[in-house]
Amino acid sequence: MRFETFVAARYLRGKRKTRFISLITFISVAGVSVGVIALIVVMSVMTGFDNALRETIIGNRAHLELSNPGGSPINDYEAAIAEIRAAVPEAVGAGPIIQTEALLRHGTDATGAIMLGVDPNLEAGVTDLAKNLTHDGGRTMGMGKLPGEKEIVLGFRLASRLGARIGAEIAVVTDKPTVTPFGMRPGNQVFLTVSGISQAKMSDFDNLYAFVDIPTARMLTGRKGVDAIHLKLTDPFLADALSKRIEQDLPYRAVTWYESQEAFFEALKQEKVAMFIILVFIVLVAAFNITSTLIMIVMEKRRDIGILRTLGSSSWSVLWLFILEGLMIGLGGTFFGVVLGTLLAYNLNPVAAFLAKLMGVDLFNSTIYYFDGIPVAVVPFDIVWITLSAVVLTFISTLYPAWSAARLNPVDALRYE
What sign for the dihedral angle of Cα 230, 234, 235, 240? Predict the structure, then answer.
């Protein structure tokens, strides 16, 4: 054991007359631990939310959407799908899509919606629409089915706003002109039967989207072709590379699932960085405690420092002695923080349930967040960054007290001894 490490460890143990300093040392260790625990838990929860939302988006949106560059419709979508599947072997599913805006009315309730026309036989291989069909609000109306001719599937919250159930008739109004005996009239109203209710666990889809089949979409819009072909890939993270290849080899414009939600994902990323910076200040406060603790130890050990310098210890040796002492405090706090923080992150849901029961408060409302529990993902890379941040802040906090001890004149330290 090096001399500086031995002395630093002896100083940390303290004596009976320095119990106050030992208490402050313990508080400093606890402060670092609390900061590290908070960082690990919050970063794990934010990463868990990010992963869960990403999986939801990937399941409900196509991985790639291909359309004509000029926005013109794709007239023969079956031939287009065959061409795309031959050129993109990574595609495991493909289907057509028609998108338009519509006004939905049921009884006295009316609301706007985004209408998607899909091929029910192909859509099951592209998105999770078929899996998202749910019981009609718990009533005995069955699970529902994908839309057929003159049928419609409503998003869960959209159906709730309209007060619609499976089997209800919905008036759908689009901007397609209607021919009447008195000439062309703007707007087209068609009555559709609700065949299913989709709970995608994603606010955009549950609030705004309704689904019909391709013939019904053409009837509502007057379009002969389809707007785009959307694909499901073997790996959604291949979408970016494949979109560039498709635009080079095929006469289509490609939009990836990430590009369609880029603002949302960037907001999540910025929020995670902001939370990391904010919570690092907890560790910074603990680092200031380490600084104050070392300053007090330097003041209390002036005589010892003077003796060490008289016996031949260099100023660098004294400097490293107090740096090591501060690092022992910081490393101890970081170690306990990493262990306890990781354990708490992995057991966050049972702890949250216990606290909710103890306080009589619902800490995590699954009906609001759509998750059965708090999503947590403990990422080793995040823990490494948190550990390094805590160690670096601890090291910086030791520099001034150690420098003060190193420049202490042994004559001044022993003058009154």
Answer: negative
